[in-house]
Design a protein that fits this description.
Keywords: Membrane, Signal, Transmembrane, Transmembrane helix
Mean pLDDT: 77
Order of helices and strands: HEEEEEEEEEEEEHH
Strand order of the largest sheet: 6-7-4-10-11
Organism: Streptomyces prunicolor
Largest sheet: 5 strands, antiparallel
Radius of gyration: 24 Å
Distance between the termini: 14 Å
Low-confidence stretches: 11-29, 188-213
Protein name: YcnI family protein
InterPro entries: YcnI-copper_dom (IPR012533), YcnI-like_sf (IPR038507)
Strand content: 25-35%
Structural class: alpha+beta
Shape: globular
Length: about 250
Amino acid sequence: MSAYRTTLRRAGTVAALATAGVLAAAGVASAHVTVHPESYAKGATDGVLTFRVPNEEDKASTTKVQVYLPTDHPVLGVLVTPQNGWTAKVTTSKLKTPVKTDDGTITDAVSEITWTGGKIGAGQYEDFNVAFGQLPDDTDQLAFKTLQTYSDGDVVRWIEQTTAGDDEPENPAPVLKLTAKESEGGDETPAASASTAATSTKAGTTASSSSSDSTARGLGVAGLIVGVLGLAAGAFAIVRSRTPRS
């Protein structure tokens, strides 16, 4: 009976550790700074990007958020939505390659937006909305490198970019995918597609959160399966240990 209990305890411990490890990984994976919606059509106009910033610390609050916009593929006509408790500072830079538009040639574009004065507490997140006039049409994605500063002075640099075929980095930058433009005979024009996406930003954010929840649940189920296999292995060991005496 002593050997039986010891084996059962070991099997239970293995199952618990496996499940806890999987669930912990799911929690970490859902705590990144992200941009919503996840995609827009190339050259889309009059849309909104939402940067979701979660607080990862238990004993510190997020007090500063810096989002860097690419200037090699600039986002034109950027406007910041007023945020209760936060003050936004918008920085523009000269473009190495001016952009020609129907309204003229653009030589400057927003390169950084910094929010300060507010606070994101433990277990909370904040959405920062940024409107744009036009997205570039000469790239497949835009990476928005982000710095997140905490009240204890710690700075998390969300600046790493994912390379095809590699695992997701520890601190990935928020990435917006740019899809192919709709043809003239298609159901939507780029402008219409962007307008639809802008009005459904909140719904898109909810869908993304639901997807993250589904992923976390899937990982949790995987952990439980690993636990069951651990218990099965323990039971098998018990049967083997008792077979000679039988």
